[in-house]
Design a protein that fits this description.
Structural class: mainly beta
Number of strands: 19
Largest sheet: 7 strands, antiparallel
Strand content: 25-35%
Shape: globular
Distance between the termini: 66 Å
Number of helices: 6
């Protein structure tokens, strides 16, 4: 129903959203990017509508009004701006939101007719329906998993000419680069409810764990935030007293801790241990993700928490021979 570009949604101190939308609802017209949509033959048992061309639906600006919000002047949900701040996207118009979140598929134009390319209208994101058990063949789960696994890369090593893994003076140093492949921050949207993190495990040749960070016992377990080596991408809302809050309506500020789109971050693990009798080390690093921090669902929404999956976005591992 949209007919024009809307603006960032702003909420003031009274927390009433000021939003302006350019729409033409109720007229039975659907707008889209097909330049000559033609006329449809309607019948009583088939939903039908008029179609008109609007180039807006080819651009990321069409997503702006629902994915851009400030609260009391603070940038709380800014997915469009995150995309727009990347020059090759905003200036060159490369990789619109639709390319990732409405991927192209093929299907017959009519029963028995030729195949044509169409955009999927599932508006793929990172959320899963948690009101029911996720079946093993869930298309939604597999689609979200594929999207997440195409969003990030991991590799041992950093941007400087330093050994990716080395032992010096009894300290094992492991450099890991996290590289975003997304057109916006990771995580984005309601980043304050989401978390993406590195799980890093070092074992000896007998499988004994020498070091670990970012491990959780169960999918419903909260991360150990006291772990100073934890690599965690998320954000935190602050209330009027500067205390962390989980309520957007109580937010007066935000601490962003996300990985910007198409950016890299290098983390260095330093592990002190007696390696004199260890010949070989196994090092494994996983990037993991979940749409809700467990404590947000505990109690009243425990049934949803029990169904929430933890996705593996990327995995690297290696064997290191000690000097």
């Amino acid at each position: 129903s949209m007919t024009g570009i809307s603006k960032t949604v702003e909420t003031g101190y009274d927390v009433a959203a000021a939003a302006t939308y350019h729409m033409n609802p109720g007229e039975g017209i659907m707008y889209g990017p097909i330049e000559s949509p033609g006329e449809l033959e309607c019948s009583e048992d088939i939903y039908c509508h008029k179609s008109e061309y609007n180039n807006l639906f080819r651009s990321s600006e069409s997503c702006l009004p629902c994915h851009e919000m400030t609260v009391r002047g603070k940038e709380v949900e800014m997915t469009f701006s995150e995309w727009n701040d990347i020059p090759q996207f905003s200036m060159a118009g490369l990789v619109s939101c639709q390319e990732c979140h409405m991927p192209v598929t093929t299907r017959p134009a009519a029963v028995g007719g030729p195949l044509r390319e169409v955009h999927q209208h599932t508006f793929l994101g990172v959320d899963i329906d948690l009101t029911q058990d996720i079946p093993a063949d869930s298309l939604q789960y597999k689609s979200v998993e594929k999207l997440l696994q195409s969003s990030v890369e991991l590799e041992f090593g950093g941007s400087i000419t330093e050994d990716a893994i080395r032992i010096e003076n009894g300290i094992l140093s492991v450099l890991v680069t996290v590289r975003s492949l997304t057109g916006h921050s990771l995580p984005s949207g309601t980043s304050f409810s989401r978390e993406a993190w590195l799980e890093t495990i070092v074992t000896d040749m007998h499988g004994n764990i020498i070091y670990s960070s970012g491990t959780i016992e169960w999918p419903i377990s909260n991360l150990d935030l006291s772990d100073t080596n934890l690599v965690l991408f998320t954000s935190y809302l602050l209330d009027s007293d500067g205390v962390t809050t989980t309520s957007v309506t109580d937010a007066f500020d935000i601490i962003p801790q996300m990985l910007p789109g198409l950016r890299s971050q290098v983390h260095k693990y330093e592990i002190s241990e007696d390696f004199s009798e260890i010949d070989e080390l196994s090092i494994r690093v996983r990037m993991r993700f979940r749409a809700f921090k467990p404590f947000l669902l505990e109690g009243e929404h425990s049934a949803l928490l029990a169904r929430q999956p933890v996705f593996d976005m990327a995995l690297i591992d290696t064997t290191f021979t000690t000097p």
